[in-house]
Write a structure and sequence with these properties.
The complex is a heterodimer of chains A (about 325) and B (about 290). Chain A is mostly helical and about 325 residues long. Chain A is built from 16 helices and 2 strands. In chain A, about 75% of the residues lie in helices and about 0% in strands. Chain A has a two-stranded antiparallel ribbon with strand order 1-2. A two-stranded antiparallel ribbon of chain B has the order 1-2.
Chain lengths: ~325, ~290
């Protein structure tokens, strides 16, 4: 093991340890913020896996965030499933529902796929608004008893939520990293660089994309379930919000750098730092974010991480073979 | 009778949707480019008409004489300056740039005009109606819209089918490289196509402003309607967009008749059903 690899693992270990100890050093507000950072980071990585690697540009991921949220509320309220069991179950069910959804969406190619996913998300939003048992258009709150059953008191519950969010984020980042180092990752990289060439060397793109779409939807559903357990209340507007669950996620990924593992992390951190300073600007803040991402797409489509590596070749998550120096 | 009326109003509404769809279809047909900000440009044109009427007091329909040429010019310049960088290559940048533009436009409109729902009044035309017997009547505005849509689609198919520019545009759609080799200026042609699409967007925006309420956030839903009409009608077919628009309009009209909350959902569901049962659309282009 080289010194660089060793220091990389040491850095990763330190960051993970510091974050795991979060409930010891962070106050309530900071913890809420960190939970938000964790789930946005995971959402950005998942969107990047679809758009950056397999060319499936979805602007309808809010369908699965909302679905996960509504599923865990339904499981808790109608089937009495404890929240901790409900979370993975909601993710699993979301993937199950994403399967037939994907069959429909995959009839559309390229840009039409993007708009098609948006229509599907709208169908879910309008559909859930019609279900009166779930509060219809005005939404519903999670029963207090189910929430209290999660942990003995509020502090313990918040710590638990924090650790679950952290675990999901780490699992997503490390999972995608390991995936990219595997055979599937190699196929995905080939797909990203040149789809026709990838097909010609035997990458079976359709099952690969299909599986990826369904799996991503499942994890997105799990994250959605956690988001609305933390929020304690769900409405169709919030659950299937294109701004919250797709626009912001795309901006983060594009600004940081699409098609890399480091890009979404950089973009996500930058997004939250900017938000602390610029959130008072209201809609001008969205205009600025939009202009920055449009500018980046026009000037350096590989984002800030692409700019950075152009100056200095660094990598946090090595997924390519090292070049032998002779 | 109520049902017949719902279907009739749906058919007329389909004209507006066909106008939304024609711009989108044109852009994709020639440049293989999909503008995710399409609906927001329509709404921006509607706000531009509102602003013009407020400032100058001109009759709403007269704003067409300003907005349509202005949009065409802006479309040409925008294509030459910015969008030509995106067309032809990878899909990702064009989708993400236009998605970003959509968010920028929505928020700029929100800053400029507030979130209030607005409408442009066309005076006596708003309430005028034509009796067509059997207790059914047709509003002057929806009828005007429908006839305009047929006129615009007729004009576009004449340009594409019968003129030299149209031939060049079709050739560019088939193979931009070869057209370039034959000495045509691809960038200029793309500019022309975008100017035509933007003119239709301007027209659709002004008519939208007269027909119904709009607000800064109402762009995306117009994009979805346009897209659904294109897919239902069949990719690459201009008259197909009219068929698609009409079917979408009728689905929404009938849905609203069942329950007002079902209006939009019914349209989406019919679109999904067509996508599953007949993915090539109602009037697919008769070319290999």
């Amino acid at each position: 093991m080289s010194l660089i690899t060793l220091s990389r693992f040491a850095l990763a270990g330190f960051v993970i340890a510091a974050l795991t100890a979060g409930p010891l050093w962070a106050d309530r507000g900071t913890m809420r913020l960190l939970v938000e950072v964790f789930y946005y980071l995971a959402l950005a990585q998942l969107w990047n896996l679809l758009a950056g690697y397999s060319g499936l540009i979805s602007v309808g991921q809010q369908a699965f965030v909302g679905l996960g949220g509504y599923l865990i509320f339904s499981l808790a309220m109608f089937a009495g499933v404890p929240i901790l069991w409900g979370l993975p179950l909601a993710g699993l069910l979301t993937a199950l529902i994403a399967w037939p959804t994907a069959l429909v969406a995959f009839r559309l190619a390229g840009p039409y796929f993007a708009i098609g996913t948006w229509v599907i998300a709208e169908v879910f939003r309008l559909g859930f608004a019609q279900i009166s048992a779930l509060g219809g258009g005005s939404g519903i709150s999670l029963p207090a008893g189910m929430v209290k059953a999660m942990a003995s008191n509020r502090t313990a519950r918040e710590s638990l939520t924090y650790w679950i969010a952290l675990a999901i984020m780490l699992a997503v980042v490390i999972g995608i990293w390991l995936l990219m180092r595997s055979r599937i990752g190699l196929a995905l990289s080939a797909l990203r660089d040149n789809e026709e060439a990838a097909i010609s060397v035997g990458v079976r793109t359709r099952p690969l994309k299909f599986g990826l779409y369904v799996a991503t939807a499942g994890v997105t559903g799990l994250i959605g379930a956690l988001i609305f357990v933390q929020k304690l209340r769900i409405t169709p507007e919030a659950a299937f919000s294109v701004t919250d669950w797709t626009v912001l996620v795309i901006f983060m990924t594009v600004i940081g750098g699409i098609g890399t593992l480091e890009g979404p992390i950089l973009g996500c951190i930058l997004f939250f730092v900017l938000r602390e300073f610029l959130a008072d600007l209201g809609s001008w803040y969205m205009v600025i974010l939009g202009m920055v991402s449009v500018g980046i797409m026009l000037v350096e489509p590989r984002g800030l991480w692409g700019l950075l590596t152009r100056l200095r070749p660094v990598t946090l998550f090595p997924v390519v073979r090292k070049r032998k120096t002779s | 009778m109520e049902w017949l009326n719902a279907i009739l109003q749906g058919v007329l509404l389909g004209g507006l949707y066909a106008l939304f769809a024609a711009g989108l279809s044109l852009m994709f047909g020639v440049m293989r480019f999909v503008n995710l900000a399409h609906g927001d440009f329509i709404v921006a044109a509607a706000f531009a008409a509102l602003l013009l009427v407020d400032l100058t007091g001109m009759p709403p329909l007269a704003t067409l004489a300003v907005i349509v040429p202005a949009m065409a010019l802006a479309g040409y310049i925008g294509q030459r300056v910015m969008l030509n960088r995106l067309t032809g290559g990878d899909l990702l940048p064009s989708i993400l740039v236009t998605f970003g533009l959509s968010v920028i436009l929505q928020n700029l409109l929100l800053e400029g005009f507030s979130a209030d729902s607005r409408r442009l009044s066309a005076g006596w035309l708003d309430t005028a109606a034509v009796q067509i017997g059997g207790g059914l009547s047709v509003g002057a505005v929806p009828l005007l819209l429908f006839l305009t849509a047929i006129g615009v689609l007729g004009l576009l198919s004449w340009v594409f089918g019968r003129t030299g520019t149209g031939r060049l545009l079709r050739a560019t759609s088939d193979d931009p490289e070869i057209v370039g080799l034959m000495g045509a200026d691809k960038k200029h042609l793309y500019g022309i196509a975008m100017a035509m699409a933007a003119a239709v967007v301007g027209l659709a925006g002004v008519l939208l402003a007269i027909k119904t309420n709009f607000d800064p956030a109402s762009g995306p839903i117009r994009l979805l309607f346009a897209f659904e009409a294109v897919i239902i009608g069949g990719l690459g077919s201009l008259w197909g967009t009219l068929a698609g628009g009409i079917l979408l309009g009728v689905a929404q009209g009938v849905g609203a008749q069942i329950d007002p909350g079902l209006q939009i959902l019914a349209g989406h569901l019919v679109f999904l059903a067509i996508l599953i049962l007949k993915p090539q659309g109602l009037l697919p282009r008769q070319r290999s």
